[in-house]
Amino acid sequence: MASLHTLSNGVRVVCDPVAGLETVALSVVAGRGARFEDPGRSGWSHLLEHMVFKGAGDRSARQIVEVIEAEGGQINAATGYERTSFQIRALAGGLDLGSAVLADLIQRPTISTDDLVREKQVVGQEIAEAADTPDDLVFEMAQEAAFEHQPLGRSILGTDASIAPATQQSLHAWRAALYAPEALVFAASGAVDEAEVLALAERDFGAASGVPTAEALNAEFTGGVRAQAKSLEQANLVFMLPTVHVGHPDYFALRLFAEILGGGMASRLFQEAREKRGLAYAVDAYAETYQDQGILGVFAGCAAKDAAELAKVAAGEIQGLAASVEPAELARAKAQLKAGLFMARESPLARAEQAAGQVLLFGRLLTTAEIAADIDAVEASHLARIGAGLMAPGRAAVSVLGPKPALKAADAFQKAMFG
């Protein structure tokens, strides 16, 4: 059974032993990310995540990866709006080395001036690549419309202009705030032992220091339209509506609403828009939740001539689901949601990441039985409440990217949804 402990400096430690495995996973997660940046430091969290791999402790960039891979391990990292995570997967017995390497990355990165110049160029290429990738760009456009002039509305990558002022000294200061101990969770899963996990956490993170960044300002869903004509073969559409946050009692009702709406091949959107009408080659719905705000989103790829009609279908299916749900489809959605959550637990890294997320969000670990009970407790009336909440503000964030005829989809969705 997983256990949770707290070091004297505030670092929280999760040990999740899994019998019969020959592998371990360690995820050290900071409950801070791009959402905590001001406009002048937009993209710095992502840039910092890149920079720590250029050299840390007494290891060079090459030595960091070589020492891990020499033991059969893998190392990775990711920056989100509300978290930054550093991950190690290794054979049993690899936890000691993995913890030492991650401690260097998080607490003792070199951040040389020469490396910083080169890495800004690399990130600049990543920014350009996202702008050239339609199904990346259309989501960034929608996010900007949903949270205009707010951190959640800015790209996690930042811009060339916003990362340009970052220096060795300023990134070291940002690291101390972003990865401050009270924001860190050290989560180990797989072939691990509680005594060893606690000893390694104390050895490698027990002396971590730093004052965390200020709490993020409350997010406000502004809504709006971002439509861009571009010479593409297909149109890319995103529709977003405001909804409940991750800690809300209706969180699982939202997840089930999204599953029924567009979570799989049996979903309403797939059956109506693709199977019955042939309007889209790709269509799905999803729920994105933050600490104080949530989004129900729909993504679709279609021919430009079908974009407006597809937008009306999406609005109609959202309204229809808000009005009623069949017992069979609610039961099917519950089974799919539980399967997705619990199958992921077959991976030690997924278990470690889930545990870290629970600690950061709720301050405790949740059992699978507790999660299953919360999902099973959702009733049709809860989905109706989610549906009513989606429509109540009368605001949506819509992005359209593609040939000019597709741009009509933005107005079509707004009118179909709100009149």
- Which second-level CATH architecture of the largest domain applies? 2-Layer Sandwich
Find the structural class using helix and strand composition.
alpha+beta
Largest sheet: 6 strands, mixed
> What is the average of the pLDDT values?
96
What is the overall number of helices? 16
Q: From the alpha-carbon coordinates, what is the Rg to the nearest angstrom?
A: 22 Å
* CATH fold label of the largest domain: Cytochrome Bc1 Complex, Chain A, domain 1
Distance between the termini: 52 Å
Stretches where pLDDT is under 50 for at least 5 consecutive residues are: none
CATH class of the largest domain: Alpha Beta
Helix content: 40-55%
**Which percent range describes the beta-strand content?**
15-25%
- CATH homologous superfamily annotation of the largest domain: Metalloenzyme, LuxS/M16 peptidase-like
* Overall number of domains: 2
The string of secondary-structure elements, in order, is EEEHEEHEEHHHHHEHEEHHEEHHHHHEH
Largest sheet: spatial strand order:
1-2-8-3-7-6
Description:
By secondary structure, the protein is an alpha+beta fold. It folds into 2 domains: about 5-205, Metalloenzyme, LuxS/M16 peptidase-like (Cytochrome Bc1 Complex, Chain A, domain 1), CATH 3.30.830.10; about 225-419, Metalloenzyme, LuxS/M16 peptidase-like (Cytochrome Bc1 Complex, Chain A, domain 1, 2-Layer Sandwich). It is built from 16 helices and 13 strands. The strands form 3 sheets. It has a 6-stranded mixed beta sheet with strand order 1-2-8-3-7-6, sandwiched between helices. A 5-stranded mixed beta sheet has the order 9-13-10-12-11, with helices on both faces. The chain is globular and about 60 Å long. The protein starts with a strand and ends with a helix. The relative contact order is 0.16. The mean pLDDT is about 95.
